[in-house]
Amino acid sequence: MRLISHPATKVVHRPAKRRTSRRVASVTSAVSVLGLLCLPASGPASAASGPAATSSPCRYGVLTPTPSPGRYISLFGISALASNDVWAVGYSDRGVGTVVYRPLIEHWNGTAWSVVASPRPMTDVVLYAVAAISPADVWAVGRMSRTQVSAGYSVIEHWNGSAWSVVASPRVQGFASALAVASPGDVWAVGLRPASDPGLSADTLAEHWDGTRWRVVPTPNPGRYGDSLSGVTVAGPDDVWATGATGTNRFDTAPLSEHWDGHAWSVVKIPAESFTSALRSLTSAGPSDVWAAGWYDVQTPTGTVTFTLAEHWNGHFWALNFPPSPTGDDTLNGITAVSANDMWAVGSTALNRTFVLHWNGLGWKELSPGLAQKGNTNVLWSVSAPTPAGIWASGGGYHTLVEHICPVSG
Question: What's residue 106's pLDDT?
Answer without folding.
Answer: 98
